[in-house]
TrEMBL record:
Pfam families: Cytochrome_CBB3, FixP_N. C-type cytochrome. Part of the cbb3-type cytochrome c oxidase complex. PROSITE patterns: CYTC (PS51007). Residues 127-210, 220-301 form the Cytochrome c domain. It is found in: Cell inner membrane. GO terms for cellular component: plasma membrane. The chain crosses the membrane at residues 6-26, 59-77. It comes from the Bacteria. GO terms for biological process: oxidative phosphorylation; proton transmembrane transport. Component of the cbb3-type cytochrome c oxidase. Binds 2 heme C groups per subunit. This is Cbb3-type cytochrome c oxidase subunit.
C-alpha cells in the first residue's frame, strides 16, 4: 500500500471513530431550555399515548463508549489503519501458516502407518485405497475424471495401457515428478517427403497397425504411409509401432487413442503435434500421499486377486 492510500485509510478510520464519539456526546447531554423528558406534548389517539424525550439509560450509553474504546484498542493491536501493522504483528499469512502446520501434523499422524510402503502393498490395503481415492478425487479428478477414465487428451487410468510404463515404481515416479509428453509437428516434413497426401497416408498406416494383416489389404494409402512412418516416426514409436515408455511414446498397435481415433484427429496429431503435461505433485502431496494415490491408481487396473498375487 502506498503512503498516500495509507494516510487516506487512516484519516477515514479516525474521522469515523471521532465522529461516533462526538455524536454520542452531543446527543446525550441536556441543554438549558430543553423540555422535560415528560413534557413534549405529543399525544396520539385519545390522549393515552404520549411521546416522551427521555435519554438512554447510562448503562446503555456506557456500552457505546466501551465499544469505541475497544475499537481503538483493536486498531492499535491488529492491522486496520493503512500500512500500520499493529503492535500485535498479526497477519493473515501467519494465521494461515499456523493452521496449516496444525493440519499437516494431523495428516502426518493419519498417513504415518503407510509411510515408505511399496505401491502393491498399499494397493492390497482397503484403508490405504480409501485414502488414495480421497486424495485422487481432491487432486487428480479434475483432469482424469472422478471415475479415472480420462477424457480427450487425458489418459484413462483404469485400463492396462501406460505410455510411461505401468509398474508401481513408474506410476509413483509419474505422480511425484510429473511427465512432459511432446509429439513434434511432422506436417511440413512429411509433405516435403511424400507430397500433399503424406500426412493422410501415415494416418492410414497408423490406423492399420492394430490389425495390419486385415487393414493393410488393398489399402494403398497405408502402404505409402508405411515407408514414411519407418523414416520419420519409428525413431520414437519403434519400427513395429510398439512405442517407447522411456520417451512416453505410445504403443500404436493397441487401438487406444488419447486424442481421438478418427482420421481427422490422427492427421491433426501428426501434422500439428501434441503437448501433454502431467504436473509434478511431490511438493503438493509429499511422498506418502503420493504413494497412496499411486497405489489407488495402480489398483484400478489390477483387481484384488491380481494385487494379492503381486505381493506373493
Amino acid at each position: 500500500m502506498t503512503p498516500g492510500w495509507s494516510w487516506y485509510v487512516i484519516a477515514l478510520v479516525v474521522i469515523n471513530i471521532v465522529g461516533c464519539g462526538w455524536l454520542l456526546w452531543w446527543t446525550a447531554k441536556r441543554r438549558p431550555g430543553d423540555p422535560k423528558p415528560e413534557d413534549t406534548s405529543h399525544y396520539w389517539d385519545d390522549g393515552d399515548i404520549t411521546e416522551y424525550n427521555k435519554p438512554l439509560p447510562k448503562w446503555w450509553i456506557n456500552l457505546f463508549w466501551i465499544t469505541i474504546f475497544f475499537s481503538v484498542a483493536y486498531l492499535l493491536w491488529f492491522p486496520g489503519m493503512g500500512a500500520f501493522a499493529g503492535y500485535g504483528k498479526w497477519t493473515s499469512g501467519k494465521e494461515h501458516d499456523f493452521a496449516q502446520q496444525a493440519d499437516n501434523a494431523r495428516l502426518e499422524e493419519t498417513f504415518a502407518p503407510y509411510r515408505g510402503k511399496s505401491i502393491d502393498v498399499l494397493a492390497a490395503n482397503p484403508d490405504a485405497r480409501r485414502l488414495g481415492r480421497s486424495i485422487f478425487n481432491n487432486t487428480c479428478a479434475t483432469c482424469h475424471g472422478s471415475s479415472a477414465k480420462g477424457a480427450i487428451g487425458y489418459p484413462n487410468l483404469t485400463d492396462d495401457i501406460w505410455h510411461w510404463g505401468g509398474s508401481p515404481d513408474r506410476i509413483l515416479q509419474t505422480v511425484l515428478d510429473g511427465r512432459e509428453g511432446v509429439m513434434p509437428e511432422w506436417g511440413k516434413v512429411l509433405t516435403g517427403m511424400g507430397g500433399p497426401y503424406a500426412v493422410g497416408d501415415v494416418a492410414a498406416y497408423v490406423r492399420a497397425l492394430p490389425d495390419p494383416a486385415h487393414r493393410m489389404q488393398n489399402n494403398f494409402g497405408a502402404a505409402r504411409g508405411k515407408q514414411l512412418f519407418e523414416n520419420v516416426c519409428a525413431g520414437c514409436h519403434g519400427k513395429d509401432g510398439k512405442g517407447n515408455p522411456e520417451l512416453g511414446a505410445p504403443d500404436l498397435t493397441d487401438d487406444y487413442w488419447m486424442y481421438g481415433d478418427d482420421s481427422a484427429s490422427l492427421q491433426a496429431t501428426i501434422a500439428n503435434g501434441r503437448k501433454g503435461s502431467m504436473p509434478a505433485h511431490r511438493a503438493l502431496l509429499g511422498e506418502t500421499r503420493a504413494r497412496l494415490v499411486a497405489a489407488y491408481v495402480w489398483s484400478l487396473s489390477h483387481p484384488e486377486p491380481a494385487v494379492a498375487g503381486a505381493q506373493r
